[in-house]
Specification:
Elements lengths: L2 E3 L5 E4 L7 E7 L3 H9 L8 E4 L7 H5 L8 E2 L18 H6 L2 H10 L4 E3 L4 E4 L4 H14 L2 E4 L6 E6 L17 E6 L2 E10 L14 H8 L5 E7 L3 E3 L11 E10 L6 E11 L4 E2 L1 H6 L8 E5 L6 H13 L5 H9 L3 H11 L3 H9 L1 E8 L7 E6 L4 E2 L4 E2 L5 E3 L13 H26 L1
Parallel strand pairs: 3-4, 3-11, 4-8, 11-22
Antiparallel strand pairs: 1-2, 1-8, 5-7, 6-7, 9-10, 10-11, 12-19, 13-18, 14-15, 14-17, 15-16, 17-18, 20-21
Helix pairs in contact: 1-5, 1-12, 8-9, 8-11, 9-10, 10-11
């Protein structure tokens, strides 16, 4: 068997008795969504529950988020969140509104993890430690009756196991209704309610390698939207700024043109970061799912100024200064000197070329970051199969999907962890009544 953890992540012992019982609820995946789900059940509903985690430790991606500081959600009106999830934002409106950012911050406060809001609206634990949130979720999940079993990957699911068909001990009570059987290399686990919270395909070393998506497609027959990397950097042909890694622009502009049709397919503005090998930062990450290989990206480092305005300012500044072109660019627009030097070298002695390189810097996309670099996955279980008020599958009673396993991905800034919480709360709330009824019976 895998190692049973208590909810402070300390190995306790090997546990073999887990195979010989019917669980009220099994959660597959001990990431943010799965642990939120275990933690938010109401305290008057004691659960015989189990959380299965394929890796050796829970909450790996949660601990990685925000560089270990955990940007847990975003400040402001929840109505402004909807557009941050793109085309599927409206479909998850009900659970976002009911279990919103204020709801999440209050949950953390009551658990002894107060939050702070940065000037950019991002919300973090006051301690700036993701581990504080993980410890809270583990503790609360244990209090609600969930045990955590690690190193236990799921290999298949069996739906509607009839009484007597499940791989149970003879001493196990006969169930009053159909069950779900979760099969692993170390045995089969049976439950009345099954919650899948295994994430997408990003950062596969953390456990979210997309294998559960294939199981969902194969066994219960869940339709999938093809998973692709999202919130990932963009690699450009002839990228010239490798020596300027770390330079950022607080408000740059981006336009994306199709490499096939030449039509503009996306545009926006936001923070841009130059790395040693690619373009990154929130502006690039948030639009990366709209970009494909061979598309053209056009960057404006001085947004919202256009080429005409910039050229006019360069010409006027040159009339009153003997400084080099690089010096004029740096001083006139407040740009880093080494970036201004790079632009001047690209532009020769031409002010017109410099204005174009500052406002219409155009590149062909060579590649996008893969799942090893992507922060989240776009695609996953098709939302048309889900009751988004409860997260239950419409055609598979007792099966719930939450978090990134669904075809939901948000912008940077805490929106993906917010959906993990909101969807977890919706699933837990939907199960409260049935679990109380079953316990009374």
């Amino acid at each position: 068997m895998g190692v049973l953890y208590n909810f402070y992540s300390l190995p306790v012992r090997k546990e073999v008795n887990f195979l010989y019982m019917i669980y009220d609820c099994i959660i597959v995946g001990a990431g943010a969504a799965g642990l939120f789900c275990g933690a938010v059940f109401q305290s008057d509903c004691k659960i015989n529950g189990l959380i299965l985690e394929k890796t050796g430790r829970p909450g790996t991606k949660l601990l990685m988020s925000g560089g270990g500081q955990c940007n847990i959600t975003h400040d402001g009106s929840i109505k402004d969140f909807i557009e941050k999830y793109g085309k599927n934002g409206g479909k998850i409106r009900s659970c976002l509104y009911k279990y919103n950012n204020l709801h999440l911050m209050e949950f953390l406060r009551q658990g002894g993890v107060p939050t702070v809001v940065r000037d950019d609206g991002k919300v973090f634990p006051q301690s700036m430690k993701a581990s504080d949130i993980l410890h809270l979720l583990l503790k609360r999940s244990a209090e609600k009756g969930f045990k955590l079993l690690t190193d236990t990957p799921v290999t298949s699911l069996k739906e509607k196991v009839k009484p007597g068909e499940a791989s149970l001990s003879q001493k196990a009570p006969e169930p009053a209704s159909n069950l779900w059987q979760v099969n692993t290399p170390k045995g089969s686990f049976v439950c009345r309610h099954l919650i899948i919270a295994t994430g997408g395909c990003s950062y596969p070393s953390s456990g979210s390698d997309g294998s559960m998506l294939q199981i969902l497609q194969r066994d219960p027959g869940i339709r999938l939207i093809e998973p692709r990397p999202a919130l990932t950097p963009v690699f450009a042909e002839n990228y010239p700024y490798g020596h300027l890694s770390g330079i950022s622009f607080p408000r740059a502009g981006l336009q994306v043109y199709s490499g096939t049709t030449g039509k503009r397919i996306a545009q926006g503005c936001g923070p841009l970061l130059l790395t040693h090998e690619n373009f990154s930062g929130p502006l690039i990450l948030n639009f990366s799912k709209d970009i494909t290989k061979n598309d053209k990206i056009v960057l404006n480092y001085l947004y919202p100024c256009d080429k005409t305005v910039v050229l006019d300012r360069l010409n006027r500044a040159a009339k009153h200064s003997k400084a080099s072109t690089a010096g004029i660019i740096s001083r006139e627009f407040g740009l880093p000197k080494n970036f201004a030097t790079a632009v001047a070298l690209k532009s020769g002695a031409s002010a017109k070329a410099a204005a174009a390189n500052l406002t219409e810097d155009t590149y062909t996309v060579k590649a996008l970051g893969d799942f090893q670099k992507a922060m989240v996955t776009t695609g996953g279980a098709d939302l048309s199969q889900i009751n988004c008020r409860t997260m239950e599958c419409k055609d598979h009673p007792g099966l719930f999907l939450i978090g990134e396993v669904l075809d939901v991905d948000g912008a940077t800034g805490g929106y993906n962890l917010q959906f993990a919480y909101s969807s977890a709360c919706a699933a837990a709330a939907a199960l409260q009544g049935p679990l109380r009824t079953e316990q009374e019976e």
